Structures are given as structure tokens and as C-alpha cells.
Amino acid sequence: MFTILPIKGFIDSIDGFYCDGIHAGLKPKGNKDLGFIYSDTLCDVKAVFTLNKFQAAPLKHYQNYEKDFQTNFVLVNSKNANALTGQKGIDDINEIFSSLNHEITNPIMSSTGVIGNPLPKQKIIDGANSFDLSSKNGENLSQAIMTTDAFPKTCLYEVKLEDGSSFKIGAVAKGAGMINPNLATMLCFICTDAAIPTEDMQELLDVNIHTTFNAISVDGDTSTNDTVLLLANKKSNSYDKEAFKEVLRLVMHDMAMLMVADGEGAKKAVAFEVINAASNEEAEIAAKALSNSLLVKTALFGEDPNFGRIASTIGASRVFCDDSKLVISYNDVVVFNKGEIVFTKEVEAAAGKVLQNDKFKVICDLGVGEGTFTAYGCDLGYRYVEINADYRT
């Protein structure tokens, strides 16, 4: 048995972890743009990266390390993705780390921002050399890694085991646009003092990513820099695999849902729940088609319960379906029922009221099997165009 408790604080509340964020000159107006995570003992580290074929230099730099390497330092910059920068992008990272006056081992770099520009190396070097590695300021770090995010994204949990021992786990993340269920356009740094065996880390990351970060969509675009890092310094000497699996799922789900809620200009976070599909795989295809559909997203923005867009998107996904078995609901309001149009003025009004909420479900019962999957998305409105039309400026 175990107990999982959400607690107040940031990743620096976990024993042995330190962090901070500063303004190094990458962003205008004094906004924070450079941060770090430091552990006073070496951490085991595992990662999941974007499936975009043009992976950014920080991802390639990480993958140049030997398998099962340990680290004690992560450097994160915003405003510049260091992507499509070739070998120079990797060389720049090595030059930055070789110029730092901190005692660091196998340092990791993570970047987010505009693609196709070389790193402003000297600004990053000067900023990183000003870090106080004894700082504990998770709020500053959460702000330093933001790009188009409207708000910081953090969480922290404590897990109490039956033997009286306990461990903590928390995360800090960024993500609001270029979010597609192919990991998602995001950075997420998960820190724990759990004594998790190295071989469990990748397994549990991979298990949980499928229904969290790989199940969300803001705009259907996948970036070059998507990264999830799991860092474990094991200082608690406490661990239980089932407990860790569940709390890791909660951490990743929390961060994923905050990204959907913060979808650039979004007002609504929506769960697309497909049930009774021919298989789990087909349910996933249909659910992700719904979360990615621009027509569905704009209908949600207009608070229009247009079930035709829902049905059309499912059919276009090419999964096995039959309109004589299909049931579509907004929360508990059924708008299409097994070939019968039940969309009266009263039903439309009730469904429209559901869409006025900032969170709700679109439930699609295909009625052809037992497959299920839930994808998560948001509406898409004018603000998304404004943000991305002016992104580089």
C-alpha cells in the first residue's frame, strides 16, 4: 500500500535539487530566459525525445553520451531552439559547457524558441557563470523556460510507503503551441529522490508517455526540441515500483493537461473519449483525429455543438465504424444516437451549454468493439493566429 499526496512547492523542495532562472539577455524587457537544475549528487537520467526527423542540437548532444551516463546539471534556455544549426549547434553546446566555472558532470542542455538561429553563446556563458548553484527558486526556473506560455507549469508530490519511508517527485514544464500527439512540443523536467533502479526509469517513462504527452494536441504540429527528462538522485533510499509508476503518471498527466489548457489563446480543454471501437489502436486513431481537427477545434471555439464535424472526422480517420451504431455526446448530452438525429432545439441548447464550460468531454461510442482511448485537445481561435504570426518578432 502507498499514499500519494500533492504538496506545495517546486522541484527544489526535493532533497538535493537546486534550481533558478535569470535574465541573460536572450529575451527583451528583462524577462527570464536562462535556467538550471543542479543536484548535489549525480543523478541517473533517462529521456524521451521528439519524433521530428530534424532533432535539435541539444537532443543530439545528449545522445552522444554513453548509455546510462549520470549527470548533475541541466542548462535550459528559451528564445532560441538551437535547431537546424548542424554540427555547429552541437559544438556551441560543448563550448558553452567548457567555459563554465561550475563543477559539473556530463551536463545536459535543453533549448526552446525560434528554429534556425545560432545560439548567442556569450550571453549564455556569462549568464550561466553567474548562477548560484545553491539557489532554490523553482518559480524563477519555471518562468525562464517559457516561450508563448501564459503561465508556468509545475507540480510536486510526496509518496508515503507502507514501511514508513517516503520519496518526492515533481516537475517543471513549458508548452503551449506546436503541440501534437507525437510527444508534444514541450520541455518537461521531472526530478525525484526515489531510489528507482536505472532499468525502471525508461520503462516507466515509456509506459506513461502514451496516455499523457502523446495524447495531447493543440495545433497538430510537432517541434524539433520536444524533451522529457527524468532525473533521479536516489537520496531518499525509498522506492516502490507500482507507487512510482502511478505518481509518475500523475506528474506527466498534470503537465500534459496544463499544456492543453494553455494552448495558445485556448479557452477550453477538451477530452475526446472514444469507446467501443474495434480495437484500442483504432480508438486511438479516432481520438487523435478529433483532437487534431481544425474544424472540430474552431467549432469548440465558437461553442457550436456541431456533431457533424465530430462524425465526419471519425469517418475520415478510416477506422471501422457504422453510423447506425455511433453515439456522440457532449458530457451526458446525447446529440446523435445510432443513426437517429436527436438534435432538437432543446438538445442543441443543452449541448451548447456544455461547450460554454472551460473543461468538458466529447464522448464517441463507436459500438463496434471494446477498444478505448482518450486524447486531449483544446479550441483554436483568433489569438492563436496573432501569436504565431508575430512569433519571431
TrEMBL record:
Organism name: Arcobacter arenosus
Record-listed substrate binding positions: T147, K174, T185, E264, N388, T393
GO cellular component: cytoplasm
Record-annotated site: Involved in the stabilization of negative charge on the oxyanion by the formation of the oxyanion hole: T112, G113
Protein name, UniProt field: Arginine biosynthesis bifunctional protein ArgJ
Gene3D superfamilies: ArgJ beta chain, C-terminal domain, L-amino peptidase D-ALA esterase/amidase
Organism lineage string: Bacteria, Pseudomonadati, Campylobacterota, Epsilonproteobacteria, Campylobacterales
Record keywords: Acyltransferase, Amino-acid biosynthesis, Arginine biosynthesis, Autocatalytic cleavage, Cytoplasm, Multifunctional enzyme, Transferase
Gene from which the chain derives: argJ
Record field: catalytic activity: L-glutamate + acetyl-CoA = N-acetyl-L-glutamate + CoA + H(+); N(2)-acetyl-L-ornithine + L-glutamate = N-acetyl-L-glutamate + L-ornithine
Domain of life: Bacteria
